[in-house]
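Proteins fold reproducibly. Take a sample protein:
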Amino acid sequence: MKIDNIKIFSGRTNPALAKAICDNLSLPLGNAEVLSFPDSETFVKIIDHIRGDDVFIIQSTSRPTNESVMELLIMIDAARRASAKRITAVLPFFGYARQDRKDQPRVPITSKLIANLLVAAGANRVLTLDLHAQQIQGFFDIPCDHLYASPVIYDYLKGKDLSNMTVFSPDVGGLKRAHAYAEMLDCPLGFIAKRRVSADVVEATSLVGDVNGKDVLILDDMTETAGTLMAAAALLKKNGARSVRAAVTHAVLTDKAYERLKEGFLDELIVTDSTAPDPRYKDYPITILSVAHLFSEAILRIHNNMSITSLFKIKGF
């Protein structure tokens, strides 16, 4: 596949992932100046010549979320005004994805707003990973390629002893995801009923499935305060689980999350580098899996106008 007339740039939220993607493609990372003025305004200058090029801008809209979003929009606008032929916004982590519906009166649908802003800024297509809700793909009026971290997580898990494993969803909403993993791993499936007490406090009330003496794998798309994961892990251990590990695509861990990890209910937390790994990870049982190869392959196929469907296939699924 050809890789001519392609330029890849990175925002400031996850430059290590962008560099890894470029290394996989044997391409240099695009040269752009991105900085903040003393009054906190963001300034972008694209140094490379990109007229007529296929441009990919990599930016996880993670903490600081609003700055990350604005930085991405400005980079897209700069590329558009520099006469890029096509601009793809690559969002390994799509912030505001949980605000995808009106679940109470007089609240916004912020994920739709972000989609509108990306289009208004000049993005021609979007490439993202494990959206919190599938319907967000429909919020875009431009093509949206949605990747899944499951091939990366599966490759890691298949090297483990799966003979005693049971896959669990930490809530009813994640059952579809957990069911897919249970089929891929040929494992039993269970789920936990939870009650959200507040934004960062979750109570796991009951579980469905056999956990006594089992090695349990909890699946979720993201964790922030680790409230859901810790409540689920505590309930599973209380009901006789031999070990509990969790696989989460996006780790946006807060100080509260690290406090909860110290409680020791999770034997392993598996995350990807869709958000920049925190230096504190080394002090906890956290395993980081890279999605660089997944994105580099998707970028190459998009550039060559090829299908990315085969990137989803695992054991024929």
